[in-house]
Amino acid sequence: MHSEPKKYNCIVVEDEPIAAEILENFISRDPALNLVGKSTNAVHASNLLSIHDVDLIFLDLHLPVVKGFDFLRKLKNPPFVIVTTAYHQYAVEGFELDITDYLMKPIPYDRFATAIAKFKYLMEAEDALLEVAERDYIFISSGKKQIKIILQDIYYIESLREYIHIHTKSETLTFKTPISKIEESLSSAMFTRIHKSYIVSQSKIEVKSANMIQVNGKKLPVGRTYKPFIEL
Question: Where is the PTM 4-aspartylphosphate found along the chain (predicted)?
Answer without folding.
Answer: 60
